[in-house]
Design a protein that fits this description.
Blueprint: E1 3-5, E2 13-15, H1 30-48, E3 61-72, E4 90-99, E5 112-119, E6 135-141, H2 151-162, H3 166-172, H4 174-183, E7 195-196, E8 201-202, E9 208-215, H5 232-243, E10 246-254, E11 278-285, H6 295-301, H7 318-338
Antiparallel strand pairs: 1-2, 3-4, 3-11, 4-5, 5-6, 7-9, 8-9, 9-10, 10-11
Helix pairs in contact: 1-2, 1-7, 2-3
């Protein structure tokens, strides 16, 4: 039996949620429709079936949460000292490694992502709820293009997928099918591969960039992981960071041609021959124990959104606009259900908690 509930925002919800039929509202307001499909149907549907704790609707497979720092390259020319790259020489950071696979599926051939949260970033942020936050987020995945071009395309794909008709969309959009096939690649280690922001952002008033994270050196240490282990990426990440630090170069790829490097056609690859990425900072993850008490829980309770950002780094394009709405709504939903604060942290969690000998009774 369906149960109706009147939430605080005045929009009635029905549990278990009903999947709307095509076109799901994609033809009239694709961003609002995407919010409904991802949050009210997909995420809340998992909750209504008993998922506990509440999870993200995408990139919910946690591999590990690491602390680190982002060090801006000294001596950057003035035109690169924009936003976070012109404030501090370095920032404390917390980093979440994950894959976009649902429970019951192995890590193998899932899309791997990194969420990076910097602390100590001064200035007004774009998300109204976090306007005074001292954090700045960057979000990456291990494929350099998205599988659809626009928010409407994403909405239509999601609508048909939730109605069991993803193959119908792919048959009519072969580029999407090819990119989805290309994204199913074997990853040996989350520390040994490049990541891209995929979508562009502003870089100051009149320039646009995409971001890239590139390992400073190949991952070394443990042997090739056991692909039979459904959680092998977690095992590999934890083992490597117990043995050695990891470093990624943060690079900017500037838009040099608006025709070949469009802002709202996310399947189009920006050629690294036309615009060679520029190294502006280094993300350093020191040697650490990712199983340290509370570390994974801390990272899982964080929210990562490219819109938690200075205006100098404002995301652009319709898929970015959809992310702003969907990421904020799904994060609030998840954290409210789990009973954890919705607000951004004011200070980063300490990298470690020193063991202290009890003096009770002395």
């Amino acid at each position: 039996m369906a149960i109706s509930e009147e939430p605080l925002d005045g929009v009635p919800r029905v549990y278990p949620p009903r999947t709307p039929t095509p076109p799901c509202g994609c033809d009239s307001d694709p961003i609002a429709a995407l919010r409904r499909l991802f949050v009210d149907v997909f995420q809340s549907g998992a909750l209504s079936r008993g998922r506990d704790p509440a999870t993200r609707p995408v990139f919910l497979r946690l591999h590990g949460v690491a602390h680190g720092r982002l060090v801006v390259r000294p001596g950057l020319p003035a035109d690169l000292r924009v936003g976070v790259f012109g404030q501090q020489p370095e920032y404390s950071a917390w980093i979440r490694f994950s894959s976009d696979v649902q429970p019951g599926r192995p890590d193998l051939k899932g899309t791997v992502g990194i969420g990076v949260k910097l602390f100590g970033v001064a200035g007004e942020k774009l998300l109204p709820a976090d306007r005074e936050a001292i954090t700045q987020d960057f979000v990456f995945q291990n494929h350099d293009v998205f599988f659809v071009d626009t928010a409407r395309d994403m909405c239509e794909f999601t609508c048909l997928s939730l109605n069991g008709k993803a193959d119908d969309y792919i048959s009519q959009h072969p580029i999407t099918g090819q990119i989805l096939d290309d994204m199913e690649k074997v990853v040996e280690s989350a520390l040994g591969i490049p990541y891209w922001s995929v979508l562009p952002s502003r870089f100051g008033a009149d320039r646009f960039v995409k971001y890239k994270l590139e390992p400073e050196s190949p991952a070394t240490g443990p042997p090739v992981p056991d692909y039979a282990d459904p959680f092998y990426l977690r095992a590999d990440l934890h083992a490597r960071l117990r043995q050695q630090e990891a470093r990624f170069r943060l690079l900017l790829q500037f838009q040099t041609d608006p025709d070949t490097m469009p802002l709202d056609r996310a399947t189009v690859r920006w050629s690294e021959r036309e615009s060679v990425p520029v190294h502006v900072a280094t993300l350093i993850l020191p040697r650490q124990d990712l199983d340290q008490r509370g570390q994974a829980a801390y990272g899982e309770n964080l929210s990562f959104s490219p819109w938690r950002s200075l205006r100098d780094h404002e995301p652009v394009g319709s898929i970015a606009e959809a992310r702003r709405v969907v990421y904020e709504a799904s994060a609030d939903n998840r954290r409210n259900v789990n009973g954890v604060p919705v607000a951004e942290p004011a200070t980063p969690r300490p990298a470690s908690w020193p063991a202290r000998r009890s003096t009770a009774g002395r």
